[in-house]
UniProtKB/TrEMBL annotation:
Protein name: O-antigen ligase domain-containing protein
Keyword annotations: Ligase, Membrane, Transmembrane, Transmembrane helix
All copies of domain O-antigen ligase-related, residue ranges: 248-392
GO molecular function, one term: ligase activity
Membrane-crossing segments per the record: 12-37, 154-175, 212-231, 243-259, 265-283, 290-308, 379-398, 410-427
Keyword Membrane: yes
Cellular component, GO, one term: membrane
Keyword Endoplasmic reticulum: no
């Protein structure tokens, strides 16, 4: 069978290069890459982590797709052909949904129910497909990996190195006044079309955004992915982890500095605090909480000083209209939620409801740029009180599961996932994260934090009674490799 397949493939390649030379040259390269990935699945990890930092979108049949979307679908299609070193692939005796998916199921049901009252069913259905991709397809693909010690060390290396590339790109963009390395390489940024849409690129804001096109996106990515470096700095599992983690933190701090994002600084401060409190029990004593709060207040004060005049609109120096507009948008989100309190107006439909009320803003926003600037309020308006309750329950389950697993096993990636979740909770109060790759990054880090060091994967079969985490609602699965 193999010779027949090889001859047939070679014949097709020869015919393709005659009919379409560019495709004929690209096809063998793609085929070799696929064979390499099938033979060495771990090499998919660096490509995946890097793709999370390139959120530029292309439209396919009206559905906005990113590089991460394409890689995820390709990865899923390659699952039957992946070969794992050390053992043959075997089907589990009893298959179960990954735990992240099971925890998200109530919200997925609430989002589906919001379709009944959707004011734009097509838009809300597309966003529902994105949720299924993030919380069903992605955990399924990630839990197919054998997360043994080798895989986890490789993932740690990639997650400490990859953010540095985007941080350095932001530094170069800031120093050269907008000429980023990614831009020179032809990597675009997600900027809405049209002259009337608001833009966050360097030529408008003067803040570095790298491939994200905006300072907030770069800052959120660096703060959440920086949790891996901070966790490995405090709890290294190899001799080279701490030096590499310190270098990664320094470079990421430089990227945060040139982004000038106060939300990013606050998220980074929360991430550092959560990991420090989780790592050292002594810091959780009541007598030391005051010092931590003072340090956090000093951090925020220094980030605001000396431009802040003490007013609410002065929280963003030089742009009081941005704060005032955000307050107006939040008020409209609450008004939309009050009109459809149970199941909302449908996913991704807040902007339709927003413009239906003919709001007045200091800075007019383009239609594609409009969102609630708050994930919780956006979910409340889109899916109602039921959807928001289910989403908050998901976040609570994830935090509880990570904490119990950290207490029982003390795994470094679990510590990193706790910090990333803390940063995400803060970012969700100042931005709408359902529009970015942040959920893919969050699910990736949660999967790493909830998996075991010995290669057993979460949610893939019944948990052995010999490996049960006390008090945990999460299960680990049998071997599937």
């Amino acid at each position: 069978m193999s010779p027949v397949l090889a001859v047939s493939t070679g014949l097709l390649m020869a015919m393709l290069i005659v009919w379409w030379p560019w495709a004929g040259v690209a096809a063998p390269v793609v085929l070799c890459a696929l064979l390499l990935v099938c033979r060495h699945p771990l090499w998919m990890l660096p490509v995946w982590f890097i793709s999370l930092g390139i959120p530029v979108q292309k439209s396919l049949a009206g559905l906005p797709l990113t590089l991460s979307d394409a890689l995820l679908v390709g990865w899923w299609m390659l699952l039957p052909f992946l070969k794992w070193p050390g053992s043959e692939r075997a089907q589990p005796s009893r298959w179960r949904l990954p735990d992240i998916t099971r925890a998200m199921l109530p919200f997925l049901v609430a989002a589906a129910l919001s379709q009944w009252g959707s004011i734009n069913p097509s838009a809300s259905f597309k966003q529902l497909l994105r949720l299924v991709e993030w919380f069903v397809l992605l955990p399924w693909v990630l839990t197919s990996l054998r997360w043994d010690l080798q895989t986890r060390r490789f993932a740690a290396l990639v997650l400490m190195v990859a953010p540095c590339a985007f941080a350095l790109d932001g530094v170069v963009e800031y120093i050269t006044h907008g000429r980023s390395v990614s831009g020179m390489l032809g990597i675009g940024v997600p900027v809405p079309e049209g002259t009337q849409t608001i833009r966050h690129t360097f030529d408008v804001s003067g803040r570095a955004g790298s491939t994200f096109g905006g300072a907030q996106g770069l800052a959120m990515f660096l703060a959440m992915s920086g949790s891996v470096a901070w966790a490995h700095c405090l709890r290294p599992t190899a001799s080279w982890h701490r030096p590499l983690a310190l270098l990664s933190l320094l470079v990421s701090a430089a990227g945060l500095a040139v982004s000038q994002s106060r939300g990013g600084m606050l998220g980074a401060a929360v991430m550092l605090t959560v990991i420090a409190l989780s790592c050292h029990a002594g810091l959780r004593r009541g007598s030391r909480w005051g010092l931590l709060l003072v340090a956090l207040a000093a951090w925020l004060g220094l980030s605001l000083w000396p431009q802040w005049d003490g007013s609410v609109e002065g929280l963003v120096p030089g742009r009081p209209e941005a704060v005032l507009d955000r307050l107006i948008i939040w008020g409209k989100a609450l008004q939309v939620a009050s009109e459809s309190p149970w199941f909302g107006v449908g996913l991704s439909n807040f902007r339709d409801a927003f413009y239906g009320q003919e709001p007045w803003l200091h800075v007019p926003l383009g239609y594609a740029s409009t969102h609630a600037h708050n994930t919780y309020l956006e979910i409340l308006a889109d899916t109602g009180g039921v959807g928001l309750a289910c989403y908050l329950l998901f976040l609570f389950w994830m935090g509880r599961g990570l904490w119990l697993r950290w207490q029982a096993r003390g795994d470094t990636f679990t510590l990193a996932a706790l910090g990333a979740l803390g940063a995400y909770l803060v970012f969700a109060t100042v931005d709408m994260l359902l529009l970015q790759n942040m959920h893919m990054l969050l699910v990736t880090l949660l999967t790493l934090g909830l998996n075991q060091e010995d290669g057993r994967r979460l949610g893939m079969g019944r948990e052995s009674k010999h490996h049960r985490v006390p008090g945990s609602v999460y299960t680990t699965g049998g071997r599937w490799a």
